[in-house]
Amino acid sequence: MTAEPVPLRPVRPRWRETLGLLVRNKVALGAALVLLAIIVVAVFDRAFAPQSANAQDIADRLQAPSWSHPFGTDNLGRDILSRVIIGASVSLKVGFLSVGLALVVGTLLGLLAGYYGGWVDDVLMRLMDMLFAFPAVLLAIAILAIRGPGTSNTIIAIAVVYVPIFARVTRASVLGVREEVYVRASRSVGASDFRLLTRHVLPNAAPPIIVQTSVSLAFAVLAEAALSFLGLGTQPPNPSWGLMLAEGREFIGLAWWLAFFPGMAIVVTVLCFNLLGDGLRDVLDPRQRTLMAGGGR
Amino acid sequence: MVLAGVSVLVFSLIHLVKGDPVRRALGTRYSQEAYDALRARNGLDLPLVEQYFTWAGRALTGDLGVSFRSGEPVTTLIAERLPATLTLALAAIVLALLIAVPLGTISALRPRSVVDRIATVISQFGISVPDFWLAIVLILVFAGTLGWLPSGGYVPLTENPVEWAQRLILPAIATGVVSGSVLTRFVRSSVLEALGSDHVRTAQAKGLPTRQVFTWHVLRNALLPLVTVTGVQLAYLLSGVVVVEIVFSWPGLGQLALQAVEARDYPVLQGAVLLFALVFLVINLLVDLLYTRIDPRIRQ
């Protein structure tokens, strides 16, 4: 009688192979490259922007797109291309920081809940259920109503909205790997909880979390735009895409380009995060596909 | 249990505000009498724990306090705004289903065909477009350039059905397209899964006509989970249309909540948030119940 061979090492997600599959997915690769370009432009925004975001030239206001102003100018004569570029750094900063915060806190909570189970799980997940009962946009608005508008509070508000989502995804994934042979084997030879969690559980539970990160980034950019559009997020005169839409809305009949270009910037960025998320899901976590498709926002 | 927690969170809202919310809300209208009266009416002069139970007890009987701004009961303000939000959310979900079921089914039946590719591109775009930007573009094209439809406002159905419909079309499209895209993707993957399942293969092997296999074995199974997702989308629409309501000057709950934020009218904001959370929970519960009723497999 031969026993199943017990793998001495956990089956780690094979990163090189994963990357190879992702590169072969042309749509996801294209999305990743566009995102990379947007991120580079956002990081070096001052170098790429032809003018400063707030350089006004009243004589040149509400100019239609032309060679000197490819995206036109706004009601104060500010160059829209420059504002869209500098707005990218604002929008992406809020997106990355809020999702990063939610990722760290949510993953930690989900890891503890899923790994320890029992009352830890009960308490943490009921708390997450409570936060989850609030509709996302409204929760963010309520948090901003308490803390006041502004960029850093927007980051906190969006992060709070996404913490329960990361906690749930992580917990479900951890439950799947917690009883795997390699985890039990490692526990039986006396590995500490910390070592088990960081070396075995988290790396193997990671794929759905990675997918969720990409999808959440898409929605965080949308949420930042919506909150800034409502006047609760980024405050003028700083350009953020949502704020530019709000400003452009007043001139919509007169100058369509004011609202059109920042809107397109949001669509392209969000689209790329979504496409990359889909590609990552296909490669890392095919079973989740149908499950997540119904998740809505 | 969750509801109790939710109510504590909503209750804390007013106490987490920096400074004295009543004083800030009164602003220049401040007088000691007005201040005391407003605090007493909203139960803010009681000790904290007692305050919570008074507030929660009143909320259970439908009393959510009075507005800091107008002095009107919060329940009245909410009741005034509810029809507009319900109308928009229902119109949007109907539109979303009208888009999603045919489009999702066709793309699943012909995977990788031209129709499927177009549907995939459209739904990807629909998920990524901010609904309020779509709203602005729709206004620009249909209200501005073409001048076919009004750019905003709401008229009750009972007052003028034609104008009601005209004013509903653009907001419903702006919100419905996003939900429709989410649902299209769901229908597609759900039909694809049903097509590949064993019972469908068995039905085909028995030689049943394609049409019969499709309606009885594929669609029925594929559309069952749609109930859940549609419920989630409806809950999202009821609360998530805040920004679209602003763009179309739609006098709904989202607009009320935002006005409350701007006016620091915390009782109104508390009321709106509590109601949305309640609706969210109730819809999720109903969806679960409905799902167990229509799907015998999980009736255990």
From TrEMBL, chain A:
<dbReference type="InterPro" id="IPR035906">
    <property type="entry name" value="MetI-like_sf"/>
</dbReference>
<dbReference type="InterPro" id="IPR000515">
    <property type="entry name" value="MetI-like"/>
</dbReference>
<feature type="transmembrane region" description="Helical">
    <location>
        <begin position="254"/>
        <end position="277"/>
    </location>
</feature>
<keyword id="KW-0813">Transport</keyword>
<keyword id="KW-0472">Membrane</keyword>
<comment type="similarity">
    <text>Belongs to the binding-protein-dependent transport system permease family.</text>
</comment>
<keyword id="KW-1133">Transmembrane helix</keyword>
<keyword id="KW-0812">Transmembrane</keyword>
<feature type="transmembrane region" description="Helical">
    <location>
        <begin position="21"/>
        <end position="44"/>
    </location>
</feature>
<feature type="transmembrane region" description="Helical">
    <location>
        <begin position="127"/>
        <end position="146"/>
    </location>
</feature>
<dbReference type="GO" id="GO:0005886">
    <property type="term" value="C:plasma membrane"/>
</dbReference>
<feature type="transmembrane region" description="Helical">
    <location>
        <begin position="94"/>
        <end position="115"/>
    </location>
</feature>
<feature type="transmembrane region" description="Helical">
    <location>
        <begin position="209"/>
        <end position="234"/>
    </location>
</feature>
<protein>
    <submittedName>
        <fullName>Peptide/nickel transport system permease protein</fullName>
    </submittedName>
</protein>
<feature type="domain" description="ABC transmembrane type-1">
    <location>
        <begin position="88"/>
        <end position="277"/>
    </location>
</feature>
<dbReference type="GO" id="GO:0055085">
    <property type="term" value="P:transmembrane transport"/>
</dbReference>
<feature type="transmembrane region" description="Helical">
    <location>
        <begin position="152"/>
        <end position="169"/>
    </location>
</feature>
<dbReference type="Pfam" id="PF00528">
    <property type="entry name" value="BPD_transp_1"/>
</dbReference>
<keyword id="KW-1003">Cell membrane</keyword>
<dbReference type="InterPro" id="IPR050366">
    <property type="entry name" value="BP-dependent_transpt_permease"/>
</dbReference>
<dbReference type="Pfam" id="PF12911">
    <property type="entry name" value="OppC_N"/>
</dbReference>
<dbReference type="InterPro" id="IPR025966">
    <property type="entry name" value="OppC_N"/>
</dbReference>
TrEMBL record, chain B:
<keyword id="KW-0472">Membrane</keyword>
<keyword id="KW-0813">Transport</keyword>
<feature type="transmembrane region" description="Helical">
    <location>
        <begin position="121"/>
        <end position="148"/>
    </location>
</feature>
<dbReference type="InterPro" id="IPR000515">
    <property type="entry name" value="MetI-like"/>
</dbReference>
<feature type="transmembrane region" description="Helical">
    <location>
        <begin position="222"/>
        <end position="248"/>
    </location>
</feature>
<dbReference type="InterPro" id="IPR035906">
    <property type="entry name" value="MetI-like_sf"/>
</dbReference>
<keyword id="KW-0812">Transmembrane</keyword>
<comment type="similarity">
    <text>Belongs to the binding-protein-dependent transport system permease family.</text>
</comment>
<protein>
    <submittedName>
        <fullName>Peptide/nickel transport system permease protein</fullName>
    </submittedName>
</protein>
<dbReference type="Pfam" id="PF19300">
    <property type="entry name" value="BPD_transp_1_N"/>
</dbReference>
<feature type="transmembrane region" description="Helical">
    <location>
        <begin position="86"/>
        <end position="109"/>
    </location>
</feature>
<dbReference type="InterPro" id="IPR045621">
    <property type="entry name" value="BPD_transp_1_N"/>
</dbReference>
<keyword id="KW-1133">Transmembrane helix</keyword>
<dbReference type="GO" id="GO:0005886">
    <property type="term" value="C:plasma membrane"/>
</dbReference>
<feature type="transmembrane region" description="Helical">
    <location>
        <begin position="168"/>
        <end position="187"/>
    </location>
</feature>
<dbReference type="GO" id="GO:0055085">
    <property type="term" value="P:transmembrane transport"/>
</dbReference>
<feature type="transmembrane region" description="Helical">
    <location>
        <begin position="268"/>
        <end position="291"/>
    </location>
</feature>
<feature type="domain" description="ABC transmembrane type-1">
    <location>
        <begin position="82"/>
        <end position="291"/>
    </location>
</feature>
<keyword id="KW-1003">Cell membrane</keyword>
<dbReference type="Pfam" id="PF00528">
    <property type="entry name" value="BPD_transp_1"/>
</dbReference>
